[in-house]
Amino acid sequence: MKVLSLVNMKGGVAKTTLAVNLADVLNRREGKRVLLIDIDPQFNATQCIMNGNSYKEYLSNKGYTVLDVFNDTPLSVVSSVNGTTTIPPKKIEEIIPYNIRNGFDLLPGALELHRLEMGSGQGKEMRLRNYINHLRTNDLFDWVIIDTPPTPSAWMSAALIASDYYLTPVRPEPLSATGIDLLRVVVNGITSNYGLNLSCLGVVLTMAEENTIVFSDAVDFIDNNTYWKGKRISKSLPKRTAIARGQGNQSFILDLDDHDLNISMSRITKEVIERAEA
Ligand SMILES: Nc1ncnc2c1ncn2[C@@H]1O[C@H](COP(=O)(O)OP(=O)(O)OP(=O)(O)O)[C@@H](O)[C@H]1O
Ligand SMILES: [Mg+2]
């Protein structure tokens, strides 16, 4: 089982878009058993999969969310769906994700993550790794893809602690490209703090307009940077407004009638698999 986190400390670089669509393509085209985990309190990945009503229904039927992974004390929650309720802590083994289709599951995100105290040193950030170890022991999935928030938070640490690899989406623009050096410093800090065996699987250029100067500058920056050299995934994700529109009605990239986009997403996924299996 391979565990991959999508990380960048910059917001809006397509972490969620890549997480959701990598998971979809790994399952739909590559026949892998995939779990997508949404640990971003904004829960955008969840909203790309479930519409508002299905998510509310899922919560009112007491469906499990990522909150159950992190929460180890009874947590009282006020929500428009259930009023005030107390969520009891769950055992790792009882947490069952939401089934999207055969071989594709989602552990949905939860807004209440904001309310959970996650000071470092409390051990909560190890709970995601414990959950993933349980999935691994029981051979439940081939791939686990984790979507993370754009801030160096306890959630991001938890994701990296639980991961074998990380993949970094970058927007081809000067500040975004140079910003990944800061990401490297943060990731290296977490890696050495926790003694992790974590490797960078690659950098994906997203929202790409390949015939522009900013695009070729971003390519040059990554290809010539001492640390990121050789890490660039050769196919980039083209810029298309249809992606955002599709996400509004829970469509994946493969569902859009756009050959180039489908090919790009499929090639990116193949390269991710090749690198992880190398
Ligand atoms: N290739 C693309 N072309 C055009 N728009 C895109 C593309 N990929 C993603 N988007 C849109 O850009 C916005 C940001 O993408 P996304 O939410 O995936 O980024 P993110 O890095 O997860 O953001 P955040 O840091 O807030 O979590 C979304 O509206 C998404 O639909
Ligand atoms: Mg996101």
Please give the count of helices: 10
Helix residue percentage: 40-55%
Which descriptor suits the 3D outline? Answer: globular
Strand order of the largest sheet: 5-6-2-7-1-8-9
Name of the level-1 CATH class: Alpha Beta
Number of strands: 9
> What string, H for helix and E for strand, traces the elements in order?
EHEHHHEEEEHEHEHEHHH
CATH topology: Rossmann fold
Radius of gyration: 18 Å
Bound molecules: adenosine-5'-triphosphate, magnesium ion
Named CATH architecture = 3-Layer(aba) Sandwich
Percentage of β-strand residues: 15-25%
What's the end-to-end separation, in Å? 14 Å
Domains (count): 1
* Main structural class: alpha/beta
Uncertain runs with pLDDT below 50, 5 residues or more?
Answer: none
CATH homologous superfamily (4th level) name:
P-loop containing nucleotide triphosphate hydrolases
Topology:
Elements: E1 2-6, H1 15-28, E2 34-38, H2 44-49, H3 52-60, H4 66-70, E3 75-79, E4 83-87, E5 98-101, E6 104-107, H5 127-137, E7 143-147, H6 154-162, E8 165-170, H7 174-194, E9 199-205, H8 213-224, H9 241-248, H10 259-277
Parallel strand pairs: 1-7, 1-8, 2-6, 2-7, 8-9
Antiparallel strand pairs: 3-4, 5-6
Helix pairs in contact: 1-10, 5-6
